[in-house]
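Tutorial, part two.
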Amino acid sequence: MFKLLKTSGQVRRGVLKTAHGTIQTPFFMPIATAGALKGLLPSEARELGAEILLANTYHLHLRPGEELIKKAGGLHKFMSWDGPILTDSGGYQVFSLAKIRKLKEDGVEFQSHLDGKTIFLTPEKAMQIQAKLGSDIHMVLDECPAADAKRDYVEKSLALTTEWARRSKKAASKKSLVFGIVQGGMHADLRKRSAEELRGIGFDGYAIGGLSVGEPQKTMLKMIDTTLPHLPVDKPRYLMGVGTPQDILEAVERGIDMFDCVLPTRNARHGHLFTSRGVVRIKNEAHAKSLKPLDPDCACYTCQHFTRAYLRHLFMSNELLGLRLLTLHNVAFYLNLMKEIRQAIKSNRFQVFKNSFLRTAGETDFRSGDV
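Running the prediction step on this input gives:
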C-alpha cells in the first residue's frame, strides 16, 4: 500500500498504491468537489500531471446522490477519471456550510445548504456513502472545531471524533483505504492524544485536520511538529486543506506526504496567479500592455501561448476562456512544484531547492503582492 523510497531527516519520498493506480509522494490533490475540477477536463488534469483527485462526500450526497453515482458505475466512471480518488467524509462541510446543525453522540443532524432538508449523518453513513461512490481512499467522519474554540469544547469534540473514528473503521469497506483524522484544536497535548488514540485504532493512513482555519502559520507548524512524532512512520501522512506553496514546503520538510487545497482553482477565478517569481494579480493595470508570459519558468499551455496582456483582457472581459487558462496555469504550477520537490528529495537537495524557490519568489507568503 505505502512504501517509503527515501528519507532524509524528516523529509520523505514514497509511493502509495490504490485500487486505481500508484501515486508518487509527496503529492498534491486538485479539488474536484462535485466530481469536477472547476475549469478543466479530466484529461487536462492528467496531462498536467495529476495522479489523484479529491471529491467531496457531502456535496455528492446532496446532489446528485450516491445511489445514482453507484448506478452509473461509481464515481470514476461518472466523472470519467480513471485514476485514484480520495473522498472526504463531509464532516467539515457540515460544520462550515450547513444552515443549522446539532451535534449528537450518534452523529450530526443538519439542514442542507441547498434546500434546507434535514439530514442525519453518522460515521457509518459517511462510510456507506463513500463505498457507493467507489473512491480509493475514504476519510472517517470527524468534527472540526474552530481555531479559537475553548479548550473544554475541543476536549469534548476530540472524544467524539475518536469514537466516530472507531465506528468509521468498523463500518469501512475493505475494498478501499481508510484514513483517520487527527484533531485537537491548537492544543499540543490534545493533538498528541488524538494521534495516539487513532494509532491505537489502526488506519491505512493518517490525516491532520483542523489546521489552516485562520490560525497563524507559526501555530500551524507547531501543531504539525507536535503531531507527527506520534504517527506511524510507515503510513502516509496527509495535511488537510493546506495550502500555499510556502506552507507545502514547510510541511514536506517536517514529513508530510499528501496535500489538498482549493487555492489553485479558487484563486485563479479571482485573478490571483502563482508563479515562480511570486503572485501575479492579473487585473492590475501594470499587466494591461505586458507582452511577457505569466511565468517565464512555466511550461504550461497558458504560459507558452499567451501574454499577460491577453490574459488580463480575457479576465476583465469575463471570458470563460480566461478562467480556464488561469486555472490551468495554477494547477500546473502546484503539480510541477510537487514534481520538483520529489526530484529534489531523490537527489538529496530538498533544502537547497526550498531555499532557492523561496528566494526566487521573494520570500512571499503567496497570499499578497504582485510581480
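The chain has two domains: 2-261, 272-360. In part three we will examine how such features are distributed along the chain.
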